[in-house]
Amino acid sequence: MGAYNSGQYTAYEAWKQVVRNRQKIILSPQYRKVMHDECIMALVFGFTAPLLEKILTYSLPSEYEFVMDLFSNDIEITISNGNLVISN
Fold it and tell me: Residue 26 in contact with residue 84, Cβ under 8 Å?
């Protein structure tokens, strides 16, 4: 099995783009309970602004850029081992 390479990037640079674009936040079960309503709104209506606001209130200022990058694309919300997992 092979992968398409346009020749625009070296293999290292292409992989770095993939890793950089795939992001994930894992929150403990306590946060899952606090953000339940916002997660439901994001899943059902596709309205992620309240969830983003709530995550930013719990984030450190140095984490804001990472969180904003995560929410710049479509997000996926799952529960894994009781933890809330938000990824893109």
Answer: yes
